[in-house]
Amino acid sequence: MAEYVPDFDISKPTIARVYDAILGGKDNFAADREGAAAYMKHVPNSKEVAIDNRLGLEKGVAYMAKHGIDQFLDIGAGLPTMRNTHQVAQEINPEAVVCYVDNDPIVLSHGRALLADNESTTIVTADLRDPESILNHPDVRKVIDFERPIGLMVVGLFMHFHDEENPGEWVGALLDACPSGSYLLMTDFADTGEPQQKAIEKAGLEALGNGWVRKPEKILEHFQGLPLVEPGLEWVPRWFPGEPDREVPAAEDLEPYHRIMMAGLGYKA
Question: Which CATH number covers residue 93?
Fold first, then answer.
């Protein structure tokens, strides 16, 4: 099977590289920095929003690893930043395996260089829009055993697809391939009618031509009917999966930029 190789055009911003630029990384180009500037113009705390996304990833991966998941399929992984999936998972279970998937060729080249000495982690170039390209990729099949529970992750990605594209169908196809005992971790921009949420959408459309907010009930639909680990779908600073009684700040006490990114973790019984 020929490996999927997307067009490589540094004159156009990509999700992974704009995200990298927002976080102050160095793996980006002028067009990506312009995209990051658009985000910062509309939402000056865009970096904190990006950090919320990473914290959602860390919390979700830690929960799954502590509950027996030892293989993770991370879709739209982006460029290495903060603490990544393999670092969180392998800190809890050194035997955990991770397969990163992204459609940006720079992610592939940087990821392979950084992961050269980690035999339990691999990275492939494929696209969520084509679930079969992921499921049938030989490198995915090499590390992920679809007969055993999987931690399927779509973190910081869903907002970049419009509902008219039916992205839930792509996630559904991946989830169908995962056996009982698997989890689905997702984060997304939420729309509860606040101005900073519309601002992040405006920023995304200006920077990348995508980046929509969704009503929480619409985000829930993309969990394909799976029951969610308590406390369900929640703002990331209030989201601690498996700890529904934990004391957390009231939603109205959060800074507005903390009321943009929501996280949830579904369980496939």
Answer: 3.40.50.150
Under DSSP, is residue 252 helix (H, G, I), strand (E, B) or coil? helix
Structural domain includes residue 235: no
Confidence category of residue 128, pLDDT binned at 50, 70, 90: very high
To the nearest 10 degrees (0 to 180), the angle between helices 105-114 and 15-22 is 60
Residues spanned by the domain of 94 = 15-79+87-224+257-267
Strand order in the sheet with 151-154: 121-125, 97-102, 71-75, 151-154, 183-189, 261-267, 234-235
Give, rounded to a whole angstrom, the gap between the first and last alpha carbons of the chain: 32
Question: Which one-letter DSSP state was computed for residue 3?
Answer: P
Does residue 246 form part of some domain? no
Q: What's the pTM?
A: 0.94
Run of H or E residues at 97:
strand 97-102
